[in-house]
Design a protein that fits this description.
The protein is an alpha+beta fold and 424 residues long. Among the domains are: 2-94, Rossmann fold (3-Layer(aba) Sandwich), CATH 3.40.50.20; 124-191, Dna Ligase, domain 1 (2-Layer Sandwich). It has twelve helices and 21 strands. The protein has helices at 10-19, 51-60, 72-75, 78-84, 98-105, 107-116, 132-141, 165-176, 245-265, 299-302, 310-318, 394-407, and strands at 2-7, 27-32, 42-43, 65-68, 92-94, 124-128, 146-150, 159-162, 187-191, 197-205, 210-218, 221-223, 227-230, 235-238, 272-281, 284-291, 333-340, 364-367, 370-373, 376-379, 383-391. The strands form five sheets. Strands 16-15-10-11-14-17-21-18 form an eight-stranded antiparallel beta sheet, sandwiched between helices. Helix 5 (98-105) packs across helix 6 (107-116) and helix 7 runs antiparallel to helix 8 (165-176). The radius of gyration is 21 Å and the shape is globular. The mean pLDDT is 96. Bound molecules: adenosine monophosphate and glycine (GLY).
């Protein structure tokens, strides 16, 4: 199989690493990739948002499968573009079309979908500039803390959680009337606050059948003890200790199965990954959000635990035969620790040389924000490297990852020292 993988983060390095082990891989291209993907495939300068450019590359390089990492091109319709182009009829694209990607692209769409299919989620209301006074009234009926969500994609920054009613009303106005998040906040979802512990669950589906991937827990805040600003994710573990078989069964029966059936019933053909952001409230699962892609840094622990050939699954999505494929997980634990640039998630420094990558053994160092020139690797993003280890249990995996992180250096490097500690 000749594969083009779109994206440049740790998620894509983890996917590329897994693809590179496949017995059916012929050639792997990553666009644009990073210094890590460059070691296992060919990085190509392509913008995933320029569909014509992607098409040209796909045809010139006889690509069989395009796998889309991030949500942007999916929400913008790359799957629809491939679907409607006759020249691309022989190429399979793994990722939902524009309508299906609304599960992530519009919080209001996702909430309505969950309501139609009785999928447990927080109570909510959706408001626009025209209905802002109804929004204020709705806030009056809610209890603190208040959760406000920009309807559209806002680079992970569109969710505000506020303690005070006055402040919540002020922010609602700023989102709706002053376009705080641009077009993304022309509609705002106001939600009941759910108090619990979060986890991430994943499936891959061809629109008919689906396969579950291992679940994971992500650490979103910059500071230890889950404090400070939200980030893309500072580390992850898999499996998740509190996700026992009873709880996972509830997720299957109340969330995953109704979602897949609901999509099918509504004639929404979903091909690709679905990420269920779930919160455990007194042992009951609720959906916090859907994403139309894999998680990052969850991918850095999920794919190392996948024993099956990922391209066999990708082929299954392309040929609508996913139900016939096998998915086997590694029973061991995986942990990843993210090293980030000084200043992240606010303005951060870049272009720092990374030292010590060759001194690490028994840990996979996935690159998230790096570039390279010959053997010299330099930082190019906020999240720089994710050190993933496997172990017979979580403490063993964590210990190995922290040992590896201790050997890697770049100016201003920061990482959380408490990944996994809350669930041990
Ligand atoms: P989202 O972009 O929807 O995942 O929201 C970002 C983060 O805000 C989530 O990962 C949660 O930690 C938090 N969050 C979102 N919605 C709620 C809610 N209804 N109750 C409590 N926390 C929430
Ligand atoms: N780690 C959370 C996300 O990928 O959205």
């Amino acid at each position: 199989m000749r594969v083009l993988l779109l994206g440049s983060g740790g998620r894509e390095h983890a996917m590329a690493w897994k693809m590179s082990q496949s017995s059916i891989l012929e050639e792997l291209f990553i666009a644009p990739g990073n210094a890590g993907t460059k070691q296992i495939g060919k990085n190509v300068e392509l913008s995933a948002d320029n569909f014509e450019e992607v098409k040209k590359f796909v045809l010139n390089n006889r690509i069989d499968s395009v796998v889309v990492g991030p949500e942007g091109p999916l929400v913008n319709g790359i799957a629809d573009f491939f679907e409607s182009d006759n020249d691309l009829s022989g190429v399979s694209l793994v990722g939902p079309n524009k309508e299906a990607a609304q599960l992530e692209g519009s919080k209001d769409f996702a909430k309505k979908f969950m309501k139609r299919h009785n999928i447990p989620t927080a109570k909510y209301g959706t408001f626009t500039k025209e209905t802002i006074s109804k929004g204020y009234d709705f806030l009056d009926t809610m209890k603190s803390p208040y959760v406000l969500k920009a309807d559209g994609l806002a680079a992970g920054k569109g969710v505000l959680i506020l303690d005070n009613l006055k402040e919540a009303k002020k922010e609602l106005k700023s989102m709706l009337s002053d376009a705080k998040f641009g077009d993304a906040s022309s509609r705002v979802v106001i939600e009941e606050f759910l108090d619990g512990v979060e986890l991430s669950c994943f499936i891959i589906t061809d629109g008919d059948g689906y396969k579950k991937l291992p679940e994971a827990k992500d650490y979103k805040r910059i500071g230890e003890g889950d404090t400070g600003l939200n980030t893309g994710g500072m580390g992850a573990i898999s499996p998740v200790p509190f996700a026992n078989p009873t709880f996972l069964d509830k997720i299957d029966n109340q969330i995953i199965i109704p979602t897949v059936k609901g999509l099918r019933k509504e004639g929404i053909k979903y091909k690709g990954f679905i990420f269920f952001g779930i919160i455990n409230v007194r042992n009951e699962p609720y959906v916090i959000e859907y994403n139309c892609r894999m998680g990052d840094p969850e991918s850095e622990v999920v794919f190392p635990r996948l024993k099956s050939d990922i391209l066999d699954l990708i082929e299954g999505v392309g040929t609508n035969t996913l139900s016939e494929r096998d998915v086997v997980f590694d029973e061991r634990s995986a942990a990843t620790v993210m090293m980030v640039s000084e200043g992240y998630p606010a303005a951060y420094s870049k272009g720092k040389q990374v030292y010590g990558l060759n001194t690490v053994a028994d840990t996979i160092v996935f690159h998230a924000g790096t570039t390279s020139d010959g053997p010299v690797v330099t930082t190019s993003g906020g999240r720089v490297l994710a050190a993933t280890s496997m172990g017979k249990d979580l403490p063993t995996a964590l210990k190995k990852s922290y040992e590896a992180v201790g050997k890697i250096e770049f100016d201003g490097a920061y990482y959380r020292k408490d990944i996994g500690q809350d669930v041990l």
